Amino acid sequence: MKNVLVTGSEGMLGSEVVRHLKRRSDVRVVRGTADSLDITNLAAVKQAFERHRPTHVVHCAAFTMVDTAEKEPLKAYTVNSEGTKNLAFFARELDAEFLYISTDYVFDGSKADAYVETDEPNPINVYGDSKLRGEHNVQTLCERHKIVRTSWLNGLGGVVNRNFIETMLRFSQTRDQLSVVNDQTGHVTFTFDLAPAIGLLLDVKSYGVYHVTGEGECTWYDLATKVFEIAQKSVTVKPISSDQFRSLARRPRHSVLRNTRFEGLGLPLLPHWEDSLREYFRRRRLAEGLRQPESRGPSRDAQYAS
Ligand SMILES: NC(=O)c1ccc[n+]([C@@H]2O[C@H](COP(=O)([O-])OP(=O)(O)OC[C@H]3O[C@@H](n4cnc5c(N)ncnc54)[C@H](OP(=O)(O)O)[C@@H]3O)[C@@H](O)[C@H]2O)c1
What we know:
Elements: E1 2-7, H1 12-21, E2 27-32, H2 42-52, E3 56-59, H3 66-71, H4 73-94, E4 97-103, H5 126-141, E5 145-150, E6 153-154, H6 164-172, E7 177-181, E8 185-186, E9 189-190, H7 191-202, E10 208-211, E11 218-219, H8 220-230, E12 236-240, H9 260-264, H10 273-291, H11 298-303
Parallel strand pairs: 1-2, 1-3, 3-4, 4-5, 5-10, 6-9, 7-12
Antiparallel strand pairs: 8-11
Helix pairs in contact: 1-7, 2-4, 4-5, 6-8
The structure holds NADP nicotinamide-adenine-dinucleotide phosphate.
């Protein structure tokens, strides 16, 4: 029986990981929410490990606001680097296996090809640097570690309206024209695809860094265009460059990750992002129906028909 502590269990990915693992009869899930387990509080982390004695940690908690991290670097480093160190320290004490969720933003995006797991990271923003320091802490402290770098996450858990798809849909309520960056290329990854992949990785005894992303590259412009197409929103999307879109944090231009090690284990690659985007809308409709049974009329379904 695996006793799995999931940190950030109310976040976008963490909530999906919990949902997935709870279906397994060989796993007992311990949820660590931001309230019940503040990873920056050493005493709270110690107490959680003593109380639950996890055999595995799936560390999804993080400070994820990339632009805010530029203004509040201390907060980003405290959560992503120091918080991770706290967890890794007590995981080592119990000889628990440690699976850390990391990001494509550890790379600078200057490589023309896709990044493989052995490529040298070189973050260009605070968030990426704080996550890389988290990686180093895990590597230093826990021999049995898996670092799962993923990218461009979208999902229906956590604070849903923070994700890119929901942001686009929100814009579509008030605007019929939108400018979206078209010179950053990456892999959109859906939490409902990544959570089962994390479940599979928990079962293998091969440690180190893994890249795990949805299949197919795209730009933010491509994603926005597809969102409006599937949602049947008549929004004109204008492609712009990163230089035309002012943001506090620099972002890698080509943060395309190749899932070499994951595939090498014979594990199934994640679906293509366009297929998963359709699946996202299907799940979204279901969730809407469950939340608002009174709105079960045809109008709402037609709005998001794929
Ligand atoms: N989102 C992406 O596009 C993306 C891409 C690549 C990798 N990742 C990585 O994937 C993982 C999951 O990201 P996500 O998108 O699911 O993020 P998320 O929705 O922001 O979830 C992160 C969770 O961590 C919690 N948290 C923050 N500070 C904490 C603390 N001190 N102690 C305990 N919990 C704390 C947050 O709580 P509050 O909401 O209350 O702050 C939230 O529930 C992260 O490691 C992230 O770096 C994300």
